[in-house]
Amino acid sequence: MARHELYNDDGTTDRETCPRCGDAFLADHGDRTHCGRCGYTEWN
């Protein structure tokens, strides 16, 4: 997915950002969200 596809028409996004990195989005894997940049993981 290209980065421009993550944003709505008004420039906002529904994705969570990483609390550790700040500028990276968290990927949703169903049972967890994960930051590909630093490895931060939140288990559901």
Structural class by SSE content: mainly beta
Largest sheet: 3 strands, antiparallel
Write down the Rg.
11 Å
Question: N-to-C terminal Cα separation, in Å?
Answer: 23 Å
Query: How much of the residues is beta strand, in percent?
Result: 15-25%
List unreliable stretches of 5+ residues.
none
Q: Strand tally, please?
A: 3
**Share in helix:** under 10%
* Morphology call: globular
By DSSP (H or I, 4+ residues per run), the number of helices equals: 0
Trace the largest sheet across and list its strands: 1-2-3
Mean pLDDT across the residues is: 89
Order of helices and strands: EEE
Number of domains: 1
Keywords: Metal-binding, Ribonucleoprotein, Ribosomal protein, Zinc, Zinc-finger
GO biological process, one term: translation
Binding site for Zn(2+): 18, 21, 35, 38
Cofactor: Zn(2+)
